[in-house]
Amino acid sequence: MKKTISLICLVVCTFIWGTTFIAQDTGMDNIGPFTFNSVRFFVGFLTVTPFVLLLERKKINEQIKAKPKSFSKLIIIIGVFLFFGTVFQQVSLLYTDVANSAFFTIFYVPMVPIIVYFLFSKKLHWSIWPSVLACIIGGYLLSDISNANIRFGDGLVLIGALFWALHIIYIGKIIEHFDLPFFIALLQNLIVATLSFLLAIIFEEIDISKIKLETFEILYAGILSGGAAFALQIFGQKNIAPAPAAIVMSLEGVFAAIAAWLILSQILGLNNIIGCTLILGGVLLSQVAPIYEKNYK
Hints:
The chain is mainly alpha-helical. The protein has helices at residues 2-26, 33-66, 68-92, 98-105, 108-120, 128-142, 148-177, 181-203, 208-213, 215-239, 242-249, 252-263, 270-296.
């Protein structure tokens, strides 16, 4: 039952993330990416706060008191990785399409076991290498190589995918020791909002009247993605291992591409569709093959 609830949490989380790409894209019509991220994650912070006060206030001191240094270290790492993942993803949308950004983002799935191998010396399954090859070929077909702007945008997403992979790995680490999903979501939102605000002050003009024009996009991305979805991710990963969790979360690219087609009329060409299929196939192979072998040996 717990696994079923966790699975539902991850599917809903992934749907929200996929459709949030639309809000992220249209939310920069009047403001810059750092301003959008700062306000969006501050809204996420406010969204999660009541849940922390209602559900976790008593548990916070009890759990953190035992390992205060460990919690502080992990939450800073998670917050910083999330910040870099969101910054690269958000800026990429200035240069590339929603589908490209979403599908290149899910490169984090085959990246997870590779990073775990180098950081924690866990053995790599054979399926990782054909998966990576499929993702590379798919990426070539998905990206418009002749367009320098799109190439640059897709490159930013790939860098961001590295940080998304690290974020997933370390979320798995922190929830092994601290059963505080809302408090973790609260703090990571605050870290991203603060760091994004610093970048906005340095590189952008903060205009409240322009921010108001993006109210719907900010609320959608902040309340649902920054607030609800990250809490759902943490709940989901609590009872599901990182590899199966990554399978579900890889559907983010599919949801985003469908939403971009329906809402923004961003139509994929044949090469793009083949590229998306290869990336999704590679992502699924990297996760399904080890589970299949384990169950049928």
